[in-house]
């Protein structure tokens, strides 16, 4: 027994289904595009308690650093300031976020931290309120930075890594997660589009950091 069907009708139904599938794909893609964040979606609090939108730095190359005043890596302030003076006229900014989570190496107030940095290293780049970068109270900015560029591992010698872990655990109730900030002076490089392009552990030579910054300018 022969089956009768309407070829034109089937073609029309197929076209409708195809259009529906493409529309659903476009809707899903648009949703993903809307949820993709850049650094400009975040803010930091300055030393006076004012909220500073990072959209104020749109179009600039940024180096975001969690810092400390009493750390073995603290002398990196000198190299950071030299880099800032050399490159800021080309559209470069350093955003300094002091943190006391790593061995309690930033015990002072915001005012004391600023005084120390300006007196000892002559720092002139923006410094924000002392904040957490790991754990439940971590700044949303740093949560996003770590999601974008996790810890690749292997940056610290085994003995040093153990000491760092002991000091961190004494200062914090939550242990570090895999992609957490490992120590002071971890740096995130942001391009002119507001995207994270690199993460540097504090053990990376500052000349290498500067070369990466210049490549984005």
Please give a quick description of this structure.
The chain is 40% helix and 13% strand. By secondary structure, the protein is an alpha+beta fold. The longest helix has 29 residues.
Number of helices: 6
Assembly status: single chain
Helix fraction bin: 40-55%
Write the element-wise H/E pattern from the N-terminal end onward.
HEEEHEHHHEEH
Mean pLDDT: 89
Radius of gyration: 24 Å
Main pleated sheet: 4 strands, mixed
Shape: globular
Structural classification: alpha+beta
The spatial strand order of the largest sheet comes to 4-3-5-6
Distance between the termini: 75 Å
Q: How much of the polypeptide forms β-strand, as a percent range?
A: 5-15%
Write up what this structure looks like:
With 217 residues, the chain is an alpha+beta fold. 40% of the residues lie in helices and 13% in strands. The chain has six helices and six strands. The strands form two sheets. The protein has a four-stranded mixed beta sheet, with helices on one face. A two-stranded antiparallel ribbon has the order 1-2. The termini are far apart. The relative contact order is 0.16. About 3% of the residues have low confidence.
Structure characteristics:
about 40% helix; 6 helices; two-stranded antiparallel ribbon; 4-stranded mixed sheet; 6 strands; about 220 residues; alpha+beta
Secondary-structure topology with pairs:
Elements: H1 7-35, E1 43-45, E2 51-53, E3 61-67, H2 76-87, E4 92-98, H3 110-121, H4 140-148, H5 158-171, E5 187-190, E6 196-200, H6 206-216
């Amino acid at each position: 027994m022969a089956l009768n069907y309407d070829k034109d009708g089937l073609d029309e139904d197929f076209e409708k289904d195809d259009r529906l599938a493409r529309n659903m794909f476009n809707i899903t893609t648009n949703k993903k595009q809307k949820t993709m964040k850049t650094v400009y979606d975040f803010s930091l609090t300055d030393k006076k308690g004012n909220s500073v939108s990072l959209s104020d730095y749109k179009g600039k190359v940024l180096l975001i650093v969690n810092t400390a005043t009493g750390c073995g890596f603290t002398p990196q302030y000198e190299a950071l300031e030299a880099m800032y003076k050399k490159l800021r006229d080309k559209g470069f900014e350093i955003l300094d976020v002091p943190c006391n989570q790593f061995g309690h190496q930033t015990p002072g107030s915001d005012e004391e931290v600023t005084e120390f940095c300006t007196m000892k290293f002559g720092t002139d780049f923006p410094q924000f309120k002392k904040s957490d970068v790991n754990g439940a109270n971590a700044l949303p900015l740093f949560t996003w930075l770590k999601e974008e560029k996790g810890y690749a591992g292997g940056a610290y010698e085994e003995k040093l890594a153990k000491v760092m872990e002991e000091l961190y655990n004494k200062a914090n109730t939550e242990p570090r997660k895999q992609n957490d900030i490992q120590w002071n002076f971890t740096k995130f490089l942001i391009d002119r589009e507001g995207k994270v392009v690199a993460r540097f552990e504090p053990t990376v030579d500052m000349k290498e950091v500067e070369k990466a910054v210049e490549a984005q300018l």
